[in-house]
């Protein structure tokens, strides 16, 4: 720390899972395994979609973007979390903490918004199949994806800038295994009113509006499926959106569990559990969910493995 008119924090200590010292090595092995599987699975999906022309469709284009977001999300958290499980004191510089906050907020919010876009894609595919190619043109899909990345980058920049303007004069222990908004606000010794307002607005948009739009899309999808005359048609229609529905339920469960609540009611333990779910478990399971339930992706991955062998 440096001294001026008051003591200013130049680094933070990530509490991590230090309250459970007996499980440190077990957690390290589990988290390392999850990280390796997440990276491998998402990279394979990106390669399979990139080099297989049969997967150059809107659904897989958005899946490509989701895999990219998963890599950014888990890579912004896991290296430092793994380091913390092996060291007695897991410190992170102020700049490192702000950088982690930016990339994590960017990727996590992008995933929530992209899941809504993917729900709309499934709505068009099932409810308006004859107009699908027109409504979900390559140019329109590119605009949607670019809009998701740009809007969420802007949102993350706002939250990061608001965090940088705060004064931190101690204590400097973050009750988490990575830097995120609520625990940092609790450590600030200056007014966090604007930060709290912007956090509430972001929660309302990403946790409220996005979720509502996803529910509306699936309401129309289910209605259309029930109106289908043949059981084969119903099964085929449901199979095209079942993987996405599983991912949506898993991701929003973690978000609602810990974050859709006022900053003042923040719970460190709940936040750690949710952090594990969306920064480790979700990026690990997403590739498995989309590949195990999708014959086209599995076929594309077989081609990738054959290319590596040859």
Largest sheet: 3 strands, mixed
Portion of residues in beta strands equals under 5%
Spatial order of the strands forming the largest sheet: 4-3-5
Q: List segments where confidence is low: pLDDT < 50 over at least 5 consecutive residues.
A: 1-5
How many helices? 10
Mean pLDDT: 87
Morphology call: globular
The value of Rg in angstroms is 21 Å
Order of helices and strands: EEEHHEHHHEHHHHH
Secondary structural class: mainly alpha
CA(first)-CA(last) distance: 56 Å
Helix content: over 70%
Number of strands: 5
Structure description:
This protein is mainly alpha-helical. The protein is 75% helix and 4% strand. The protein has ten helices and five strands, in the order E-E-E-H-H-E-H-H-H-E-H-H-H-H-H. It has a three-stranded mixed β-sheet with strand order 4-3-5. A two-stranded antiparallel sheet has the order 1-2. Helix 1 runs antiparallel to helix 2 and helix 3 (94-127) runs antiparallel to helix 8.
Task: List the keywords.
single chain; 310 residues; mainly alpha; three-stranded mixed β-sheet; two-stranded antiparallel ribbon; 75% helix; globular; disordered N terminus
Chain-wise SSE layout:
Elements lengths: L1 E2 L3 E2 L2 E4 L9 H27 L7 H29 L4 E3 H34 L4 H4 L2 H27 L8 E2 L6 H7 L5 H35 L3 H28 L9 H25 L2 H15 L1
Parallel strand pairs: 3-5
Antiparallel strand pairs: 1-2, 3-4
State the gist of this model:
The protein is mainly α and 310 residues long. It has helices at residues 24-50, 58-86, 94-127, 132-135, 138-164, 181-187, 193-227, 231-258, 268-292, 295-309; strands at 2-3, 7-8, 11-14, 91-93, 173-174.
């Amino acid at each position: 720390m440096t001294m001026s008119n008051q003591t200013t924090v130049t680094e933070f200590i990530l509490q991590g899972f230090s309250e459970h010292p007996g499980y440190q090595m077990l957690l390290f092995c589990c988290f390392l395994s999850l990280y390796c599987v997440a990276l491998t699975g998402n990279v394979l999906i990106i390669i399979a979609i990139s080099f297989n022309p049969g997967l150059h469709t809107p659904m897989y284009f958005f899946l490509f973007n989701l895999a990219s977001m998963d890599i950014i999300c888990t890579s912004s958290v896991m290296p430092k979390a793994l380091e913390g499980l092996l060291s007695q004191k897991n410190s992170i510089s102020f700049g490192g903490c702000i950088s982690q906050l930016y990339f994590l907020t960017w990727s996590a919010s992008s995933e929530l918004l992209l899941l809504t876009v993917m729900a709309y894609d499934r709505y068009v595919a099932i409810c308006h199949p004859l107009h699908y190619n027109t409504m979900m043109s390559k140019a329109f899909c590119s605009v949607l994806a670019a809009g998701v990345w740009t809007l969420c980058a802007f949102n993350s920049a706002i939250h990061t800038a608001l965090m940088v303007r705060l004064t931190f004069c101690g204590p400097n222990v973050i009750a988490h295994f990575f830097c995120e908004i609520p625990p940092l606000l609790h450590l600030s010794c200056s007014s966090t009113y604007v930060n709290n307002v912007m956090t509430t607005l972001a929660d309302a948009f990403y946790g409220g509006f996005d979720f509502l739009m996803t529910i509306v899309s699936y309401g129309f999808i289910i209605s259309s499926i029930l109106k289908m005359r043949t059981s084969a048609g119903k099964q085929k229609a449901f199979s095209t959106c079942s993987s996405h529905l599983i991912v949506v339920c898993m991701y929003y469960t973690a978000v609602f569990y810990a974050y859709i609540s006022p900053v003042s009611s923040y719970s460190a333990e709940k936040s750690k559990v949710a952090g594990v779910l969306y920064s480790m478990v979700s990026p690990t399971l997403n590739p498995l969910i989309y590949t195990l339930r999708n014959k086209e992706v599995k076929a594309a991955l077989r081609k990738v493995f054959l290319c590596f062998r040859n």
